[in-house]
Amino acid sequence: MNNSADLLKELRIDRSAPPPASRRGLWIALAAAAAVLVLALAGWALFGRDNAVEVKTAQVVAIGNGGGSASVLDATGYVVARRMATVSSKITGKVREVLIEEGQSVTAGQVMATLDPIDADAQRDLAAAQVGAARSQIAGVQAQLREAEANAARLGGLVRQQLVSKAQYDQAIAQRDALRAQLNTAQRNAQVASGGLRIAAQGVDNTVVRAPFAGVVIAKAAQPGEIVSPLSAGGGFTRTGIGTIVDMDSLEVEVDVGEAFIGRVQPKMPVEATLNAYPDWKIPAEVIAIIPTADRGKATVKVRIALKQRDARIVPDMGVRVSFLEKAQPANAVAAKPGVLVPAAAIVSRGEGQVAFVVADGKAERRTLKLGRTLGEDREVLDGLAGGDTVVLDPPQGLVDGTAVRVATDEGDSASADASE
Hints:
Blueprint (H helix, E strand, L loop, with lengths): L1 H10 L12 H26 L3 E7 L1 E2 L8 E11 L2 E4 L5 E6 L6 E2 L4 E5 L2 H43 L5 H40 L2 E3 L4 E6 L6 E2 L9 E2 L3 E4 L4 E8 L11 E6 L6 E14 L4 E8 L11 E7 L14 E4 L4 E3 L2 E8 L2 E6 L1 E6 L2 E6 L6 E4 L11 E3 L2 H11 L1
Parallel strand pairs: 1-25, 10-11
Antiparallel strand pairs: 1-24, 2-18, 3-13, 3-17, 4-12, 5-7, 5-10, 6-9, 7-8, 9-12, 13-16, 14-15, 14-17, 15-16, 18-23, 19-20, 20-21, 22-23
């Protein structure tokens, strides 16, 4: 019984014990700390971050050493041929023989293919027969004319002796003149028939397809038994050419230069070309012409470049990179410090000089410049900047040496634009 009483006492609630600790104070402390952190971040955003001036920047580009040929612009393009032709026949006909293969060199006038000449031969034989008939007609009229002239001469003597009538003499004269007219007509018919024979012979020659100029065959388009036509009269089953040849001596380079940089390119400007297939091979070249029209879709201008070196490795449609160069200085010239290209928008006048601001460690650093040439929308800087420097574009008037700056990003610009809309 005592044990049971003790157990019941243990189950009794002890109201004299202190209540458990509350967690309300802990939550209040955490909320206060969070509020302090938010206020600190807001203060940094207002008084720390916004103190930095937002600027747009651009990279400075090195353009090479002054003692050699300096590259002022790089571009990409393709090797093209100024003389390239898909050779076809002048007439529609069936191919009898093809005498070319891809990669074969041909000379001007060399036979590339022949067509079936049956129809052309028949036309030429008919024209030859017409020439023979016209010439035989001339011979018959000439014999009749000789007889008429003799008869007229004889009657002329008799009419003077009054042995024949004047009417007989006049009739003989008229017959002689008629035969002379017939002879003239027969001779003209013979000339026409001869012209027809020459045309028929040309038709036979048209069945032979020849190379219009010397070059290399890059495509073979027809096979024996196929129909070829310069007009593709037979639809998809009719070939329009025998093959394509390229004059390898007419190869040049065409590149598209952006409108913003076309001012750097001039005719006769030296160029260094590098084929994508042979990156270690530098080919000397020269600007031929700047095509006086622009592509509004790509905002580019086409430039033609002549290759000064001929080689079998250069073939049409090859990709090529070109560097437009300034003229090289003499070998004994004093080597100058490498120059750089800087956007003209980064250069401003401060005091009596031209300066630019370089972004370094989040601050603007003022640099005094020594300027050179104007190349399109860029300026050459001879001293004050180095390749790879980051310069501020359109520096605000209040920007000074040591001002904290932050670079504007495209994402921020687009977000601002969306917000304004």
